[in-house]
Amino acid sequence: MAQNTKTAVLVFHPHMEASRINARLMREAMGHDDEGILVRDEYAALRSGQIDIPDEQAFVKGCDRLVWQFPMYWYSCPPLLKEWEDLVLTYGWAYGTHGDALKGKELMLAVSVGSAGENYHHEGEFGYTVDELLAPFKATSNLIGTVYRKPFILTGVSSGMSDQNLEKAAKDYLSRLQDDWPTQ
């Protein structure tokens, strides 16, 4: 990662107090402000009742790299991330005429998936890969002009990921945040 690069980690988990996986990943990323890793728990920030659009726009515009961290719910994201996209990524700011505020920034998803990875393929239980299910985010990235990077995906988190595997995943996540991001 280039010197002085700022990475915004936006965490979208509606029940962080009950989360084992996303809470651990978030804790691993926190405390690295001196390395330019800035973490926001978006549900905690929403306690005021509404998204502060100008603040969110200023925060992400001031960063070089964006991470949307969330658990996969019903093959998609928690509702606040969708609402955040709808309200923050506005026409004229993030896309459309003069909408280039995020153009050229990198975007990476950090997704925790309940079922085992082997269920996510064309012959598997769900008939789709996790990458295919994330296609709307890649389309959003294309629209807003960000460079979509290979997602950080943890599968099988509902089947009792061991503490040892979770610790390894947390270290791998921090390493990914600190390093150059691979392409898709």
Automatic annotation (TrEMBL):
UniProt name for this protein: Flavodoxin-like fold domain-containing protein
PANTHER family with a match to the protein in the record: GLUTATHIONE-REGULATED POTASSIUM-EFFLUX SYSTEM ANCILLARY PROTEIN KEFG
Keyword line: Oxidoreductase
Database matches in InterPro entries: Flavodoxin_fold (IPR003680), Flavoprotein-like_sf (IPR029039), KefG/KefF (IPR046980)
Flavodoxin-like fold domain mapped to chain residues: 6-177
Pfam families given in the database record: Flavodoxin_2
One Gene Ontology MF term: NAD(P)H dehydrogenase (quinone) activity
